[in-house]
Amino acid sequence: MTVPAEITAGTTVQWIEAAGVDLNGAPATSASWTLTTYLRMNHTHEGATVVGTARSDGGWTMLIAASVTINLDPGTYYWQSRLTSGATVLPYGQGTLQVLPNLYYTGLPAAYDGLS
């Protein structure tokens, strides 16, 4: 899995995932499988769903738009990826990532305490 370890709220995030393996040990490629990654944290209504786009090499391009990441609170997120094909659902990976705050501003900046 190549999910980034850190992302910044308000930015576009992209990574590439390789094909997986099905229950029989055969390649699970984007031709017949969907790769979805879920991001969640310990705050109500905080998360994102990322559905991969098929690549010609059988893997997926994963993309989270800046319009989605701008709504993510800074902190630790837990992610889990899974492959689906019809009724078959397979684990693909899981872990954590850090969402860093968005420091962008317009006009005069307000005070910012990076320690809290």
Topology:
Layout: E1 6-8, E2 13-17, E3 20-21, E4 27-28, E5 34-40, E6 47-51, E7 53-54, E8 60-64, H1 66-69, E9 75-85, E10 88-100
Parallel strand pairs: 1-10
Antiparallel strand pairs: 2-8, 3-4, 5-6, 5-9, 7-8, 9-10
Description:
The strands form three sheets. A five-stranded mixed beta sheet has the order 1-10-9-5-6, with no helix packed on it. It is elongated. The longest helix is centred in the middle third of the chain and has 4 residues. It is mainly β and 116 residues long. Helix content is 3%, strand content 47%.
Question: Which structural traits does this protein have?
Answer:
116 residues, mainly beta, 5-stranded mixed beta sheet, 3-stranded antiparallel beta sheet, 47% strand
